[in-house]
């Protein structure tokens, strides 16, 4: 497990760098036009994974994925960093041009998911948070 040292609170970083934008969301609106959703899904799926936490079903299929991905924005062609939260019923991808905000969002998503135990993680992960946190770290 890693500890991330936050130099500033998230609110201060948002004030400094601007908010993250939502590029994909299975339930709700996004900050990009609906015509671009498939394109963003394609480039995010093909991006470079930087951090990944995953819980699989007993059959080995993913049940929960939280990952940090670097990808190239299909409109501006600039590098972006996205945090993705995926379950079979939901997908949410938010990104930013600076890595610090998605990195903090990734950390919060992993810790919150474990704390709220939506998937009953302690039964699936006998080692606790350490079994879930960056289980397939690809950095």
Helix content: 25-40%
Report strand order across the widest sheet: 1-5-4-3-2
Shape: globular
Structural class determined from secondary elements = alpha+beta
Strand content: 25-35%
Distance between the termini: 13 Å
Computed CA radius of gyration, to the nearest angstrom: 15 Å
Q: Please summarize the sheet with the most strands.
A: 5 strands, antiparallel
What letter string, H or E per element, gives the SSE order? HEHEEEEHHH
**Record field, number of beta strands:** 5
Low-confidence stretches: none
Mean pLDDT: 81
Helix count, per DSSP? 5
Kindly describe this structure.
It is globular, with a radius of gyration of 15 Å. Strands 1-5-4-3-2 form a five-stranded antiparallel beta sheet, with helices on both faces. β4 and β5 form a beta hairpin. The longest helix has 17 residues, at 100-116. The chain contains five helices and five strands. 30% of the residues lie in helices and 29% in strands. The chain is an alpha+beta fold.
Task: Give me the secondary-structure topology.
Blueprint: H1 10-17, E1 21-25, H2 37-45, E2 48-56, E3 62-72, E4 79-87, E5 90-96, H3 100-116, H4 121-124, H5 129-132
Antiparallel strand pairs: 1-5, 2-3, 3-4, 4-5
